Description:
This protein has helices spanning 48-63, 73-93, 99-112, 118-126, 137-148, 164-179, 191-201, 214-233, 264-273, 277-287, 292-297, 301-304, 329-335, 351-361, 373-386, 388-395, 399-406, 412-418, 435-438, and strands at 5-9, 12-21, 26-34, 37-45, 309-312, 323-326. With 440 residues, the protein is an alpha+beta fold. A hairpin with a 2-residue loop joins strand 3 (26-34) and strand 4. The chain is rod-shaped.
Amino acid sequence: xxxxxxxxxxxxxxxxxxxxxxxxxxxxxxxxxxxxxxxxxxxxxxxxxxxxxxxxxxxxxxxxxxxxxxxxxxxxxxxxxxxxxxxxxxxxxxxxxxxxxxxxxxxxxxxxxxxxxxxxxxxxxxxxxxxxxxxxxxxxxxxxxxxxxxxxxxxxxxxxxxxxxxxxxxxxxxxxxxxxxxxxxxxxxxxxxxxxxxxxxxxxxxxxxxxxxxxxxxxxxxxxxxxxxxxxxxxxxxxxxxxxxxxxxxxxxxxxxxxxxxxxxxxxxxxxxxxxxxxxxxxxxxxxxxxxxxxxxxxxxxxxxxxxxxxxxxxxxxxxxxxxxxxxxxxxxxxxxxxxxxxxxxxxxxxxxxxxxxxxxxxxxxxxxxxxxxxxxxxxxxxxxxxxxxxxxxxxxxxxxxxxxxxxxxxxxxxxxxxxxxxxxxxxxxxxxxxxxxxx
Length: 440
């Protein structure tokens, strides 16, 4: 056999490759064009038959202008290994990716990272992202309710973090929310679900009945937002869920309820109808403006600890900020019979006893029941008599809220009459507490 052997496609035309005989091998040599430029390639074989077989395949590729023929042996090996790696990825994940797509994504990511390791960037990203656990909405709601229960228990000498009433009402709203999404995971909730739930509150009647008040629907929105925040902390929901951006989650403008107040004559009738410690509580509510919950948390000692003032400690105030409320002369006269209880650390009275006293006292024709009537009355008359700033300090209110709700509800003359309501002559005797309270 004579060398060099020139190889042609089907034995015709131009020689596309050549086999040279070397002392220790047979070299297959060919020329091709890569990106428009001529490039020489060669590959050595121990046997002539191997070189001839490879040459025949190469000639066919060059005749068809197949780009694979332009690969160097190293490039061809890399391409084959890359395709095998992509096949293993498909077998493991079911995700099919082409060699071109994987190379393009790598180049784009590398450019964004300015040469930093892509795997390192992915690991850093995963360290900041929580893996979400699938949890049924109803199960999550019960878990949240159970987790809130310990916060309703007061440690000795301290106030509970959450009131029992607040937790009870929140549980009712959360369970109604959960009932709207049976067999649904928290992570599957979408904005359309929240829109449908809020819209259903005013139309669909159930055990609780329809929610007609805009203020009540705002309470539901607040409870749902609290649930979503908690779900993120528990990794039941992605931090970037954006559910609060649902159209129906925007708070509604609720109409302010009409503020109803007592007249000085009605206030006197209410005080004279009350008996025992409830009379003291009614007097404090009307002449010092404490909230009902603050009244129920008061001890007798709080009335006398600071001369001329009622001390509302941080643990007993709604805002959890201590304040001193001046005792006006009329209030001092109503409280004088109770001075003997100055050292008591017990509550003035129980909620049930106060409610019973108010129900009985309010049967008189002068005193129709008014929601928060005593506090509203105090704020209105104090605003008229002392001005916005002083009244706000005594009531523990923001001045702007006082101005918005209580301005012009009473005149200065009516205010002077209100704060002049005192016990009738002959009512200065000591009023004793019920026997069961004395034993506390």
